[in-house]
From TrEMBL:
<protein>
    <submittedName>
        <fullName>Peptidase S16</fullName>
    </submittedName>
</protein>
<dbReference type="InterPro" id="IPR015947">
    <property type="entry name" value="PUA-like_sf"/>
</dbReference>
<feature type="domain" description="Lon N-terminal">
    <location>
        <begin position="17"/>
        <end position="212"/>
    </location>
</feature>
<dbReference type="InterPro" id="IPR003111">
    <property type="entry name" value="Lon_prtase_N"/>
</dbReference>
<dbReference type="Pfam" id="PF02190">
    <property type="entry name" value="LON_substr_bdg"/>
</dbReference>
<dbReference type="InterPro" id="IPR046336">
    <property type="entry name" value="Lon_prtase_N_sf"/>
</dbReference>
């Protein structure tokens, strides 16, 4: 989705971000994520993000391997900044949003703040390539990705819009499939932290292979 704001480098993004910890949530650059906001602290966070003009929040997962207090879980070190590109009020106190991913960030440290939501000092420098749309597309093994997708859909008796899939650019295809994948927080974090699009696609294929193998008899043939 095109955005009214243009982000061309890490310098275009704020170094302080409000963060929304959400297990299993994966936002990637230029991907779209719908959100249903109902907790009072996050309603306040959205109000503030809209009021201050940058309309950015950081999506990040709690790190269940290193649990902290129940109301303040330890966070993974890598998340993704997203811009609020759609906003609606539900009429019953909720906000319905769509975030568009801008760039990944590294959490440097959490700030001591008075707001009910958490805020962190972040850096985008390690992910400067995120600002370049479709970077690394030619290195993606598209056939392996589509083969894994077909086998996953067949195994789960699911259908897909193949015309849309086959016409999608590699970046949009890899990131959309990663974001929609039904895998757990650890797998989602690995997909987020992949150094490039090629590696993200390879992780997605490998995780899909593993999941399919769990339901495969010993004599069945591998996907690849």
């Amino acid at each position: 989705m095109p955005m009214n704001a243009a982000y061309r480098s890490p310098a275009d993004l704020p170094s302080t971000l409000p963060v929304f910890p959400l297990p299993g949530a994966l936002l990637l650059p230029r991907g779209q994520m719908p959100l249903n906001i109902f907790e009072p602290r996050y309603l306040t966070m959205i109000d503030d993000a809209l009021r201050n003009g940058h309309r950015l929040i950081g999506m990040i997962q709690p790190d269940s391997a290193h649990p902290g207090p129940e109301d303040r879980p330890t966070l993974f070190r890598v998340g993704c900044a997203g811009r609020i590109t759609q906003f609606a009020e539900s009429g019953d106190g909720r906000y319905l949003l769509q975030l568009t991913g801008v760039a990944r960030f590294r959490l440097e440290h959490e700030l001591s703040v008075d707001t009910p939501y958490r805020q962190c000092l972040v850096s985008y420098g390690p992910y400067a390539d995120d600002f370049v749309a479709r970077k690394g597309e030619k290195a993606v093994d598209r056939e392996a990705l589509l083969r894994a997708l077909r086998d996953f859909l067949e195994a789960n008796k699911l259908k897909a819009d193949w015309d849309g899939i086959e016409s999608a650019p590699n970046e949009a295809l890899v990131n959309a499939l990663a974001m929609m994948s039904p895998y757990g927080p650890a797998e989602k974090q690995a997909l987020l932290e992949a150094p490039d699009l090629k590696t993200r696609a390879e992780i997605l294929v490998a995780v899909t292979e593993i999941e399919l193998a769990k339901g495969r008899s010993p004599g069945d043939v591998s996907l690849q």
